[in-house]
Amino acid sequence: AGRYMFEVTIADSVHPQEPQGGRIQQPRQLARVGFSTAGSSLFLGCDMSGFCFDDEGSFTSEKTRKKGAASKFSRGRTVGVLINLDGTSPNANTVSLFKDGKRASAPQSIPEGLRGKALFPTVTFKNVAVQVNFGPVPKASLPFVCRMVADAAADDVELAPAKAGEKPEVVFPVGLPGTGFFDWVDMFKEKHPEYVELSDRAVAEWAEESGALPPRSGHGGSMDKPELRFG
Question: How is 132-150 classified by DSSP, letter by letter?
Fold first, then answer.
């Protein structure tokens, strides 16, 4: 294990118009940069399988967001995410943020439950265009030598096997409302994390994790079929 970095630059951002009389969704733009395990949530920082910095200067780990942990970054800035797995370093098992080559955060601890696992560079973004650089040459050099992810030593890399040719499988569970149907679904997903749930509640969770405001109260819906009227 050693220390490695990848870079992300916010190349552009868009400012969507809000409908008159509608509630303003916050944040309108979003960028999160960090690491996560294979099969983690597509929304970095929303589960226990990853950790990240965001453009508002926060660090999220184990679903807990620590504000003011880093400098904010915006369009035109290049941020480097450095992971330190060197056991001989005083900052071992930490992750740090650099902005335009300068330190933008103190080293943040990697959760105990993720140490020793294969971690993948991960970026989650909304209403922005990003450029990602895995190396081998950094866009914004650091004050010290640090290899890029693309230049990682073979002993520090875990290759994920290709799954070409595997036959997809779809499961259609059937149950009556109010009989614990989604309790069964939750147990099934826990035992089989490779499956992706497609349901009204999953769509509602994805929308809220993407920054959509939750549905207004009093618009109907139920635990089995939640209301999907956002805004």
Answer: EE--SS-SS--SS--EEGG
